[in-house]
Amino acid sequence: MAGLVTRFPADRQTYIRSYAWLAAGGMAAAMAVLWLVGNPHVWTGAPAGLAAVALRGWYLASEDLAVVWEITDDALTTTNRRVPLNQIETVNTMGSFVQIVTRSGDKHLIKYQADPAATKAAIERAMG
User: Fold this and answer.
1) Under a CB-based contact definition with an 8 Å cutoff, are residues 53 and 19 in contact?
2) Cα(77)–Cα(74) distance, rounded to whole angstroms?
3) What are the backbone angles phi and psi of residue 53, rounded to the nearest 5°?
4) Over the stretch 18-45, which tens digit does the pLDDT of each residue have?
């Protein structure tokens, strides 16, 4: 087994911040839908959007925050995935996520990174 080089755990504060932005968008979208359909109680979209996103965030937190990606000498791995470093074609950042695209077109997300640029740089260094 290859030696451990670097670990990329999900960051709780980044997770919360991401869901706060998602909640703001959900609240606005719900209010817009109610306004478009002519509902006189447009304001009810705000608590509905907030509740929906908050419930989703609470429900998925234990799963999303438990994921830890690791770079070993020859691969990027997590519990059920292994991406050989020599098969990675591109590494992109998207908000707090880092996207790995392989030569075969497979895509993997390293989610909720406090510093996605540093995560990207570490992966690119490991690739050589």
Assistant:
1) yes
2) 10
3) -70, -40
4) 999 999 999 999 999 999 999 999 999 9
pLDDT surpassing 70 at residue 4: no
53: nearest Cα among 33, 34, 25, 95: 25
Closest CA to 65 of 14, 126, 121, 101: 14
Of 13, 45, 7, 5, the residue nearest 114 (C-alpha): 13
Give me the numbers of helices (H) and strands (E) for the chain, helices first please. Answer: 3, 7
Instruction: Report the alpha-carbon distance of residue 101 to residue 87 in Å, rounded.
Output: 9
What whole-number distance in Å separates Cα of residue 122 and Cα of residue 13?
Answer: 21
CA distance 59 to 107: 24
Pair of tokens at residue 96: 């707090």
- Whole-model pTM: value is 0.86
CA distances from 61 to 16, 44, 64, 87 (A): 9, 26, 5, 30
Residue 36 main-chain phi, psi, to 5 deg: -65, -35
55's enclosing H/E stretch is helix 45-64
The angle, 0 to 180 degrees and rounded to 10, between the axes of the packed helices 12-36 and 45-64 is 150
